Request: fold
Amino acid sequence: MKKIVLKNRLPEWLRQDIPDAQAQAILRSLKKQRVNTVCLEARCPNWARCFTKGRLAFMILGSQCSRHCSFCAVGKSQNKTLTLDKEEPYRIVKAIKELRLDFIIITSVSRDDLSDAGAGQFARTISLIREFKSDIKIEVLIPDFLGIPLSQIVSAHPDVLAHNLETVPRLYPRIRPEASYKRSLQVLRQTKELSPHLITKSSLLLGMGEEEQEVNSVMEDLRKVNCDILVLGQYLAPSSRHYPVKEFITIEQFQRYREIARGFGFKAVLASPLARTSYQAQGVFNSVSHLL
Reply:
């Protein structure tokens, strides 16, 4: 695998857009409604580009995560007592109305401090959105909920359920110390057992020091649990305090991974440096929804 390591600058293909008037308007609306997005909290490189097109991913269960993944920019609780804002789902719906969204993405921080790990808040949010507009499309990107049953999430009928493996098993102790690779695979397996026709998705961030064979093995594991959609993107360290970028994956290598993934039988593959789980989500959904 050809590797590129640049100490002082990013490759040109990782250039980011400057927020335009539309993106700024959405920022003002989100602030007014007091809702969070993973786009901003996680410092996604695509947020300005996506906001310009009216695309965003809401983040529920607050803005402080109970876990301490070394690659993620989302705020950490630092053992502080967290609360559950029961009005949050209503504010999400209000924001959806104001922004006139027709494809909704809901994700969250991890909330291991809650008895249901936050699954109930997901179900309430989905249900309220459906009450507002029954035919709206909803994609959820869920944490592992500490392995609790997913029945209330699946019963709320999202159109896509995503759960990210993020990296290869070997790197979990350093990058996701409170997560479990096997547990994450079980989330995707259980989803298909509960609802065989529910579209499932998972993502990996590359450039953390993984080897090609390890990535291929993860692809194989995902297909064994019937994961439908795979997203591969370039990891970008949010700051010098986070896990460092080990390499920049070339465009050619992303193309190679795309072909390998198609060979494993994924129904859709998004593989590019700026790809993220929710990036181009509506288009990816439209490309596979008729296949299930």
